[in-house]
């Protein structure tokens, strides 16, 4: 059980960092933080619709892995026998 717990903890850390990165890469819809950090540049860089769809897909997949690793760690913690 110890090895599985370590793997899930590492997976949780990696997916947390990836989620932060992917969410910050999304195109802004209004005058939010994305416009504060070079608003004109983000429109030129992410003007492709297919790139935005791939980013949406990756964000959803990473979020699901993140959620499942949290549930797995919670189950391990709850049913762990000393």
UniProtKB/TrEMBL annotation:
<comment type="function">
    <text>Involved in protein export. Participates in an early event of protein translocation.</text>
</comment>
<feature type="transmembrane region" description="Helical">
    <location>
        <begin position="54"/>
        <end position="76"/>
    </location>
</feature>
<keyword id="KW-0653">Protein transport</keyword>
<keyword id="KW-0811">Translocation</keyword>
<feature type="transmembrane region" description="Helical">
    <location>
        <begin position="6"/>
        <end position="24"/>
    </location>
</feature>
<dbReference type="InterPro" id="IPR004692">
    <property type="entry name" value="SecG"/>
</dbReference>
<protein>
    <recommendedName>
        <fullName>Protein-export membrane protein SecG</fullName>
    </recommendedName>
</protein>
<keyword id="KW-0813">Transport</keyword>
<dbReference type="Pfam" id="PF03840">
    <property type="entry name" value="SecG"/>
</dbReference>
<comment type="similarity">
    <text>Belongs to the SecG family.</text>
</comment>
<dbReference type="GO" id="GO:0009306">
    <property type="term" value="P:protein secretion"/>
</dbReference>
<keyword id="KW-0812">Transmembrane</keyword>
<keyword id="KW-0472">Membrane</keyword>
<dbReference type="GO" id="GO:0005886">
    <property type="term" value="C:plasma membrane"/>
</dbReference>
<keyword id="KW-1133">Transmembrane helix</keyword>
<dbReference type="GO" id="GO:0015450">
    <property type="term" value="F:protein-transporting ATPase activity"/>
</dbReference>
<keyword id="KW-1003">Cell membrane</keyword>
